[in-house]
Amino acid sequence: MKPIILTIILMLGTSGLLFAQEETQKPLKISGYAEIYYQYDANNPENNSRPSFVYSHNRNNEVNLNLGFVKANYETEKFRANVALAAGTYMNANYAAESGVLKNIYEANVGVKISKTKNLWIDAGIMPSHIGFESAISKDCWTLTRSILAENSPYFESGAKISYTSNNGKWLVSGLVLNGWQRIQRVDGNSTVAFGHQLTYKPSEKITLNSSSFIGNDKPDSIRQMRYFHNLYGVFQFSNKFGLTAGFDIGAEQKAKGSEQYNVWYSPVIIAKYSPTEKLSFAARGEYYSDKNGVIITTETPHGFQTFGYSLNADYHILPNLIWCAEIKNLSSKDNIFINRDNDFRRSNFSAVTSLAVNF
Fold first, then answer.
1. How far apart, in whole angstroms, are the C-alpha atoms of residue 339 and residue 354?
2. pLDDT tens-digit series, residues 133-185
3. pTM of the entire structure?
4. Based on the number of CB atoms within 10 Å of its own CB, is 278 exposed (0-12), middle (13-18) or buried (19 or more)?
5. Which of 66, 64, 72, 65 is nearest to 30 (CA)?
6. Residues 177, 181, 184, 187: what is their CA dihedral angle, to the nearest 10 degrees?
C-alpha cells in the first residue's frame, strides 16, 4: 500500500511542477485597468472642466472614466513587447495634440535584449515616460490625483532607448532618443530629435533615488528654442507603515531662437504616506510650482503661474484588485487664475474627488 501511495504522491508532485513550469513559461499576458471618479470643484466652472494645467481627473461634477485600458504583454528571455489601448478623460486631455487613432494608444513598444550575459536592452515605440515618480495609473501612486509637477511633465514618450540593469537590481541606466516633449508625432516643421537619460539607484528595498533629464526643442525649426529639464526624486520607505517621497523638477528654455537667455521654471513636492493596516493608507502632499514666464503653464497674468498646493488622501483596498480612494485638495496662486461659473477669477481652487479603481 505504501509504495502505491508514494507513487501517487510523486506523480502529483511531478504534475504540479510541470503545471507550474507551464504557467511561468507563458510569454503572453493580458491585463486591464479602469478607474471611475466623481469630482467636485468649489469654483464650479461653467464648462465642467478643471484648470487647463490639469490632465488627470479633469472633469467636474460628473461621474466619468479617468483611464481605462486593456494591455497585452509578451515577454521572453530575449524579446518583449507591450500594446495597450485606452480611453477616458485622461486620454482626451493628455493626447489632445495627437491625431486619429494615436489618441487611444496608451503604450506600444518592442524590446530586444542585446547581450547574452548582461541585462542590456533596446526598446522602441510609445513608452511610459522615464521622468517622475507618478504615472497616470492612480492605484500605483500614493495620491489619488497627480501633483502639478507630474501633470506638466511627460506622462508618455515615443522614441528609442537603451537600458542596463545591474545583476543585483540596484542600478538602472538608460539613454533615450525621443520625438519630443510628450509627443508621438513631432510638431510640424520640427526636424530635430530630443534626448534624455535616467539613472536609478536602489541601495536597498526601502530607498529609491532617481535622476532623469530631457534635452531638445519642441517647436518648429523656424522658432527653435532649446529646452533643458531635470527631474530628481527619492522614495524612502522607513517602515511598513511610513514612507516619504520628495521630488524636484527644474527646467530652462531659450527665450528666443539663438538666445543666450533662458526662462526658468521649477517645482518641489513632498508626499508623506501612513499605512496603519495593509488595506488602509493616508497621504499628505505639499507642493509648489513656479513658472513666471509661462513656459509650461500660461496664465497671461503679471506674476505668471506661481502656485502652492496641498492635499489629503485616503485609500482603502476593498479587494486585492479593487481600491477606493478619496482626496481633498487646495491650490492657491499669486494671481487670480482660477475661473468660476460667474466668469470671475479667483486666487484659490478647492476640490474633492473620489474614485474606484480595478485591475485584472
1. 22
2. 999 999 999 999 999 999 999 999 999 999 999 999 999 999 999 999 999 99
3. 0.89
4. exposed
5. 72
6. -110
